[in-house]
Amino acid sequence: MQLFNLQNKNIALSLTNLGAAIQTLCVPDRVGRPVNVVAGFNDISRYGDNPDYLGCIVGRCVNRIDSGRLRIDGTTYQLTLNEDGNHLHGGFEGFSKKVWTVKESTNHSLLLEYYSPDGEEGYPGNLHVTVHYALKDNALEIRYTAETDKPTPVNLTNHTYFNLTGFTDPLVTNHELKVNAREYSEKNLRNLPTGRLLPVADTPLDFKNPQCIGKNIDAFPRDHGYDHNFVLDRPHDGPALRAVGAVPAAELYDPTSGRLLTVFTDQPCLQVYTANWWTGAAKGPQGVDYVQHGAVALETQNFPDAPNHGAFPSGILRPGSLYKSTTIFEFGTK
User: Fold this and answer.
1) Which of 90-99, 150-159, 283-292 has the lowest mean pLDDT?
2) Domain of residue 124, CATH code
3) What HEC string does the chain produce?
4) Distance between the two ends of the chain, CA-based, in angstroms?
5) How confident is the model at residue 235 (pLDDT cuts 50, 70, 90)?
6) Is 299 tagged catalytic?
7) What is residue 243's predicted lDDT score, i.e. its pLDDT?
8) 68-88 average pLDDT score
9) Share of the chain above pLDDT 90, in %
10) Residue 99: HSE in the Cβ half-sphere, 13 Å Cα cutoff
11) Domain that includes residue 107, residue range
12) Predicted confidence band at 200 (pLDDT cuts at 50, 70, 90)?
């Protein structure tokens, strides 16, 4: 296990190769005072037992796969079942618990890789994965690649939780969230997509215009908050975005500090999760307990359970093809 510190004039970032996880991310407020705005652990060994997936890379597949079963080219594969009869976030020992190999390290970038063997957590194929963290001006860019020798599903994300006050306010219910999505994927009682895409208009999931996260957070008592997959709009890309194929997905704003986070991605979806099951048992580098609704995760992703829904992009990576994905977290103030 190693700890790496990246820095430029606007951002200071610390990462560990255990889970390829972000530990701290310090950005300034509207008067220039930097503070750590993400949830993490002081002791990097804690990332080996990280049930809330703080800051880590999730794979091979983020989110849930129904009953852990998938069928590829006539062959059925059974994945491990680690949550209510489903396969969640890559299984019992997914990428979030692996020690990644460091390939390149500079003052403002880090390239990590992991070789996932054929059959790991039930997945077919040997998979070579890389994740590249890079600080660029006022943004953190995360680039993923993967290659396989057998057809296999791949859906990677980073599971960082944000509290733009730096946890001086223990809750994010006063944060304003905007999500560029007209639709969300309906889910059943097991948190699996039904296959139907429904409009967000006139529902508590309508974040087309910025609204406080806490305004309707009690509308989902079974979830204890937001835990929903938004289907992103794909507006015309500007020149700066066209190079990576990423478009604006969401904005998160803290009126108290003035910090603004804009998320860009080339993925079709965004999972919004408001730390609904935090209990205050974990304490982070900020020295505060992480309580329910203390932060929000903005997980860029393909559709959940995509291999089992013909209308969704399947997410199956095949030999000879390269999985590529980019997510950008851009910070500013207003």
Assistant:
1) 283-292
2) 2.70.98.10
3) CCEEEEECCCCEEEEECECCEEEEEEEECCCCCEEECECCCCCHHHHHCCCCCCCCEECCECCEEHHHEEEECCEEEECCCCECCEEECCCCCCHHHCECEEEEECCCEEEEEEEECCCHHHCCCCEEEEEEEEEECCEEEEEEEEEECCCEECECEECCEECCCCCCCCCCCCCEEEECEEEEEEECCCCCEEEEEEECCCCCCCCCCCEEHHHCHHHCCCCCCCEEEEEECCCCCCHHHHCCCCEEEEEEECCCCCEEEEEEECCCEEEEECCCCCEEEEECCCCCEEECCCCEEEEEECCCCHHHCCCCCCCEECCCCCEEEEEEEEEEEC
4) 38
5) low
6) yes
7) 47
8) 96
9) 92
10) 6
11) 3-333
12) very high
pTM flag (> 0.70): yes
CB atoms within 10 A of CB 223: 16
- Map tokens 């895409």 to a residue: 197
| Paired strand residues for 254 | none
The residues pairing with 227 across neighbouring beta strands, listed in sequence order, are: 273
Question: Dmax over Cα atoms in the chain, in whole Å?
Answer: 59
Contact 70, 76 (CB under 8 A): yes
Which of 159, 175, 228, 293 is catalytic? The answer is: 159
pLDDT in tens, 123-143: 999 999 999 999 999 999 999
The mean of the pLDDT values for the chain is: 95
Nearest to 8 by CA among 141, 135, 118, 98: 135
pLDDT at 160 over 90: yes
Q: Examine the residue annotation and report whether 141 is marked as an active-site residue of this protein.
A: no
**Number of domains composing the chain:** 1
Residue recorded with tokens 């980073």: 158
